[in-house]
């Protein structure tokens, strides 16, 4: 257990200090056990030893302060000079006088002792004090003056006057110096206490407590030394020497403690704060100290009145000065208090005004906070709830369902159909007004307990509460469809808006709002894809389809890199002579997991995800390279054309014409051998852009064909306006064909009209001989289908058609 105690660093440190403090006493006790000469030697050596300890400790502090503060290094340097002066003075005094009883007191040592005190005073002054206001300095000056006068009076009565009565009048100078030493020690104590009290910044206070103790021990020692000298009973080997040893030892320990503080790796600011506890206590009581000291002097006068009677003049002078200082200090304090009261009154008035202003700011901030909170939860345009508030309401619905599972909540997701056209045609201001009006109409279609929110753009979401019956939700959906179809006026223009609605019939079974919004969004897009202006209720099949779409989207981007896409080529035949005149490039996807995928399985997904552009570029380049390869091999192939489908997104891409021109340049294919197929819907996407693209392509020599003609937005205006070279009649018209049938009349009219406009015609989907016979008789220019030739790989075309020169196909 003792080993554990001594392992503690703090205990070891204090144990070492205690041992050092016992050393002077132990040495003195040992010196009394030897003869007089040896005792004198021990006393002299010990005195020098403790002088050197003081010098060493102070030298450590001076050395380390060189890296910390030049100012405080100089202060510690003066402490070192003072301690060094003590050593010189002691040695001078010892070798210049009788160790037991000096023959004379005034010596060269006295001048060195005086220099020692000078250095001590300079050191205390350099440490400085904090800056105070002028009136605070004035009060402290009065306090110091009162303390000094009271101390001098006490010193005069109890030290100086008794000593005068005893002193030998023949040695006045020496006697005077004898009395000044303890007085100087007392003043030094006050100086050290002042440093502790005023606490200069970044000054470690612990060493100054040791310095204060050193000055105190020195003062007591000098007092008894002076009395012994006056009474002529001083002995060089007496106990007075122990006091000087302790004074030097304490001074050396102060330097060592300061040095340890400077080299510590701990946070110095934390250590400095720990030393301010006593200073705070001292600060709270120091204001009473002058008065306590005056009271103490009066008490001593009462106790020792006989000693003071022969100093009445000095007493009354000193006490009068003290009273005067106290009165003046009180006047200063009263003046300060009046100023403080006036300042406090002004501060109170200012604080009152500031409080009023602050209250106004608080009220204003509260209103701003309320507005910010409202804005954070509501749509700025329509004032409806936004996504944040709607999600919050939906979360509350989940909580209610968990408490009461029988509750039913439905969610409707609305997306306006073709709303972009309103912004484009009538302007964004009209679009904003339309959204506001639609918000009002939607609010009329639901109950007060339901929640209507705008998610941004043209998307609205509704949470229907307590919809126990399915008909309630469907009734709201139908009411919305009817309400939105009512036109509204904008600058005397009637505007009609429809919407597609997705519905999640019940949120029971869902885990969070994100899952509900995901599925209701899927249902809404299903409604949009299947005709618009309608609603769809989410079901498992929709989720499966959406999952499939997401998976395919990710896989499409890897399909080109992994060479999973390939082309097949279906011959296009002249129906008059059944000679092959061209090929249509058909895209296929050999999926590593799903097997062979037809275009309908992935092209719509590619268009939605944007993957159609890189896929389309690959198809164009691969097909053109193949056609050019056949053209180089066979003269007949040079007269053929290659037909490639172009999606609507590709047609709207600004770089389309540049990309095709680059592909033709790279492959060397004649532009007149290339036909690009577009759908009727593509023509009306953005008429201006599409018209410009088609014009640029036709200028290059490329032909434009309308694919699946008759199934989309068929318009004679489009045929003429876009300068179409060819139409491909959809294979639906090839079914149930024959004289007297509706399809027969339609196809006959289309072929006749195209011939009049100078447009070539192709019929798709010829799968039977009678279909070939009918369209040949109607004068259709070309045809393709399984009856004529199935799609083939490029290698099969090369082997069976190009190399064999079999460009004339036998029917069937």
Can you summarize this structure?
The protein has 31 helices and 17 strands. By secondary structure, the protein is of the alpha/beta class.
Structural account:
The chain has 812 residues and is of the alpha/beta class. It has 3 domains: 49-303; 387-538, Alpha-Beta Plaits, CATH 3.30.70.270; 551-802, EAL domain (TIM Barrel), CATH 3.20.20. It has 31 helices and 17 strands. The strands form 3 sheets. It has an 8-stranded mixed β-barrel. The chain has a 5-stranded mixed beta sheet with strand order 2-3-1-6-7, sandwiched between helices. Helix 2 (9-31) runs antiparallel to helix 9, helix 7 (172-198) packs antiparallel against helix 8 and helix 20 (540-559) crosses helix 21 (599-609). The longest helix is centred in the middle third of the chain and has 66 residues, at 312-377. Mean pLDDT is 81; it is low at 1-11 and 98-105.
- State the distance separating the first and last CA atoms: 111 Å
Mean pLDDT: 81
Largest sheet entry: 8 strands, mixed, barrel
Share in helix:
55-70%
Which value, in Å, is the CA radius of gyration? 55 Å
Main β-sheet, spatial strand arrangement:
8-9-11-12-13-14-15-16
Count of distinct strands: 17
What would you call the structural class?
Answer: alpha/beta
**Low-confidence regions:** 1-11, 98-105
The count of helical stretches stands at 31
Rough outline: elongated
Strand content: 5-15%
């Amino acid at each position: 257990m003792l080993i554990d105690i001594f392992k503690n660093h703090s205990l070891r440190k204090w144990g070492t200090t205690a041992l050092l403090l016992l050393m002077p006493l132990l040495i003195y006790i040992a010196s009394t056990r030897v003869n007089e000469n040896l005792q004198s030697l021990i006393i002299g050596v010990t005195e020098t030893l403790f002088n050197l300890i003081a010098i060493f400790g102070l030298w450590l502090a001076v050395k380390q302060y060189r890296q910390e503060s030049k100012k405080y290094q100089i202060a510690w340097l003066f402490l070192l000079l003072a301690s060094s002066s003590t050593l010189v003075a002691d040695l001078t005094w010892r070798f210049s006088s009788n160790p037991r009883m000096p023959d004379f007191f005034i010596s060269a040592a006295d001048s060195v002792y005086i220099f020692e005190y000078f250095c001590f005073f300079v050191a205390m002054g350099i440490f400085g004090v904090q800056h105070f206001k002028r009136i605070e300095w004035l009060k402290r000056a009065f306090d110091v003056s009162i303390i000094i006068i009271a101390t001098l009076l006490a010193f005069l009565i109890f030290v100086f006057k008794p000593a005068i009565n005893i002193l030998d009048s023949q040695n006045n100078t020496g006697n005077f110096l004898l009395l000044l030493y303890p007085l100087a020690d007392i003043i030094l104590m006050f100086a050290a206490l002042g440093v502790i009290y005023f606490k200069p910044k970044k000054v470690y206070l612990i060493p100054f407590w040791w310095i204060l103790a050193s000055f105190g021990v020195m003062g007591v020692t000098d007092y008894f030394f002076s009395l012994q000298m006056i009474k002529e009973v001083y002995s060089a080997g007496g106990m007075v020497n122990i006091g000087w040893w302790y004074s030097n030892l304490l001074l050396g320990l102060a330097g060592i403690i300061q040095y340890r503080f400077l080299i510590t790796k701990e946070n110095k600011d934390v250590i400095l704060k720990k030393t301010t506890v006593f200073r705070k206590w001292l600060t709270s009581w120091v204001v009473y100290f002058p008065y306590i000291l005056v009271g103490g002097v009066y008490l001593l006068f009462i106790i020792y009145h006989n000693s003071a009677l022969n100093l009445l003049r000095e007493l009354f002078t000193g006490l009068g000065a003290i009273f005067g200082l106290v009165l003046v200090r009180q006047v200063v304090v009263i003046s300060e208090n009046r100023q403080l009261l006036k300042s406090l009154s002004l501060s109170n008035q200012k604080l009152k005004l500031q409080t009023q202003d602050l209250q106004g700011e608080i009220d204003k901030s509260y209103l701003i906070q309320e507005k910010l909170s409202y804005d954070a939860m509501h749509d700025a345009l329509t004032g409806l709830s936004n996504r944040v508030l709607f999600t919050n309401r939906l979360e509350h619905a989940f909580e209610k369902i968990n408490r009461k599972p029988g509750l039913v909540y439905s969610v409707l997701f609305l997306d306006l159909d073709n709303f972009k056209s309103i912004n484009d045609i009538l302007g964004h201001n009209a679009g904003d007004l339309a959204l506001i009006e639609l918000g009002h109409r939607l609010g009329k279609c639901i109950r007060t307990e339901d929640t209507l929110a705008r998610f941004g753009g043209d998307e609205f979401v509704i949470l229907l509460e307590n919809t126990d019956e399915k008909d309630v939700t469907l009734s709201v959906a139908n009411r919305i469809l009817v309400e939105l179809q009512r036109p509204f006026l904008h600058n005397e223009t009637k505007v009609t808006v429809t919407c597609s609605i997705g519905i999640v019939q019940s949120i029971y079974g869902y885990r969070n709002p994100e899952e509900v919004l995901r599925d209701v969004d899927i249902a809404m897009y299903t409604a949009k894809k299947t005709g618009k202006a309608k609603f769809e209720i989410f079901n498992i099949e929709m989720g499966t389809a959406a999952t499939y779409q997401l998976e395919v989207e990710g896989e499409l981007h890897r399909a080109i890199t992994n060479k999973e896409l390939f082309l097949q080529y279906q011959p296009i035949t002249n129906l008059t002579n059944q000679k092959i005149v061209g090929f249509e490039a058909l895209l296929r996807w050999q999926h590593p997991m799903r097997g062979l995928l037809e275009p309908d399985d992935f092209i719509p997904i590619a268009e939605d995800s944007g993957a159609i552009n890189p896929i389309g570029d690959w198809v164009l380049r691969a097909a053109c390279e193949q056609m050019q390869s056949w053209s180089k091999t066979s003269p007949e192939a040079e007269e053929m054309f290659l037909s490639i489908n172009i999606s609507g997104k590709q047609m709207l891409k600004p770089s389309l014409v540049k990309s095709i021109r680059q592909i033709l340049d790279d492959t060397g294919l004649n532009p007149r051998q290339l036909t690009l197929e577009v759908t009727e819907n593509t023509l009306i996407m953005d008429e201006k852009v599409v018209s410009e693209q088609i014009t640029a392509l036709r200028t290059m020599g490329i032909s434009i064909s309308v694919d699946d003609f008759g199934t989309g937005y068929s318009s004679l205006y489009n045929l003429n306006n876009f300068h179409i070279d060819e139409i491909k009649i959809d294979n639906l018209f090839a079914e149930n064909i024959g004289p007297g049938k509706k399809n027969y009349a339609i196809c006959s009219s289309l072929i006749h009209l195209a011939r009049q406009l100078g447009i070539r015609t192709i019929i798709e989907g010829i799968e039977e001989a009678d279909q070939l016979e009918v369209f040949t008789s109607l004068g259709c220019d070309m045809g393709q289908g399984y009856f004529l030739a199935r799609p083939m790989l490029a290698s099969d075309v090369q082997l069976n058609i190009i190399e064999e020169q079999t460009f004339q196909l036998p029917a069937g």
